[in-house]
Amino acid sequence: MDSTAKSDAWRADRDHFLHPYTDFTTFQDSGSQVVSHGDAMYIVDEAGRSYLDGIAGLWCVNLGHGRSEIAQAMGDQAQQLGYFNTFGHSTNTPAALLARQLAERTPGDLNHVFFTTGGSTANDTAIRLAHYYFNRLGKPKKKKILARNGGYHGSTYFAAALTGIHGIHYGFDRIAEDIVHHLSAANCYRRPEGMDEAQFCDFLIDEARHRIEQLGADNIAAFIAEPVMGAGGVLVAPEGYHRRMAEVCQQNDILYIADEVVTGFGRLGHWFASEDRFGHVPDILITAKGLSSGYCPIGAAVFSERMYEVISKPQGPGGVLSHGFTYSGHPVSCAAALKSIELYEREDIFGKVRDTGPYLQQQLKRLSRHDVVGDIRGDHLMAGVELVSDRDAKRNFPPDLAAAEVVFGRARDYGVIVRPVGDTIILSPPLIISREQVDTLVDSLDQAIEDVS
Ligand code: PLP
């Protein structure tokens, strides 16, 4: 490719921007697609080509692109107070108001909000404070964490340690292997042969009980799970799984951490999925992404009253809760989040998702006409289409064929952005998507799969 025909931004990016999650095999040749602006469901690249955003940026731009009201709220806040720290007894108005708004919308008695810079730092916070909580209760042995294969919890060192996607660890060191223990993924498509979904659920619960027995409940602090696994391939657990896991945790004095970074803020048609979709209230709830509709970096770990009582107990002279980020409660991020919450409510966005979500899932079933489509799954506006080279054997393609990557490329030629992860094509559009735009998304994906079949 002749890079002289490319823009200055394209060259600067290729030469200096070390991109996250990037395969560098062809990076120097092909560089990046420079996205220059966005409008509602569409993004536009610097060549002026417009694409239907089928992934909400990265499961986050829930209210769609180019929302002037959010931009205005951020600008006004930046002018009024761009930053001041929230350590100790300082605060700022948007952070305080957002904490209350979150407490009012998170389930049960999850009333105490620790602000972070994103999902990874919120998960790190949850683990650090879970350990701190048990230390303060006089149970310092409770350190181990149960996570799941296929789970994604972020890229800070500990969030990566929680992550159970094997490819992500390739070439990296693993830490905390004595602390983090992975259970099986709740992958209904690849459940053991001969089991129905109910039996698979029993199997997963038995496995968890057994592992707790092996490790000793006295040594385990927490269990972390996404309500629907996202980057692991959009895996929806069998009916009753989360509720039963919450019971197992309660019986063993293990904290349940719900990582709702993707599922929170309406993707499954409700503020949060834990209670409204899956019938349980976690001890810690993690949110990010849709919290500010992706307009500003922000995350939060929200703690129960029971935990707060212990965490906030005075430690005596010199003892403080020594945890926090410079940008915990950043006023501009909090202003973006407050405006997002206002828009979610005013426009009844989650009500719309309860219509377009099932419609997307139903339309996607059409893709089963292709032999290469092994499984179609998801919940509301979170969907995964897994490609296989052999449907009966559920065999994936050899990695060098990068089948989902090829489909992604074709879909982009047709003007829609989807996300290839392993052999699964992920869809997570902005929540403002219309039924007609769902049709366009599915039609283009259908054509892209047809082309490569
Ligand atoms: N948890 C889940 C479920 C996620 O999907 C992600 C990111 O995609 C994270 C945590 C990490 O969030 P961040 O990238 O904001 O650190």
TrEMBL record:
One of its GO terms (molecular function) is transaminase activity. It holds the Pfam family Aminotran_3. The keyword Methyltransferase does not apply. Coiled coil: none annotated. Keywords: Aminotransferase, Pyridoxal phosphate, Transferase. PANTHER family: AMINOTRANSFERASE, AMINOTRANSFERASE CLASS-III. This is Aminotransferase.
